[in-house]
Here is the input.
Amino acid sequence: QVNLVESGGGLVQAGGSLRLSCAASGRTWNIYRMGWFRQPPGKAREFVAATTWSGNTNYADSVKGRFTISSDNAKTTVNLEMNSLKPEDTAVYYCAATRDTVVVTTHYDYWGQGTRVTVSS
Here is the structure.
């Protein structure tokens, strides 16, 4: 079992920055990839970014160049640095973990409870 707890959400003006963190505990040695997803109001959940513990990263086109995902060597924390935020980035952001070594944007096994990010115009 892997437990994930997100923090760092809040209210920010357009153009501003926020840093989300995800604390992972439990059998993190069994995890291959950590990801961030988001669910905008009234919309489906979508992939944002992912990283392997070795630092291989992937991003959704909508956040490339603005968001940066990173992890620590202890396999306990994954961060999402969000810059140049836009109102359309408003969503509940979820941290997720997967044992899958192939697929990047789906098949995640563990999920956090989510943290809300609101970007005002």
User: Anything to note?
Assistant: The chain has a mean pLDDT of 95.
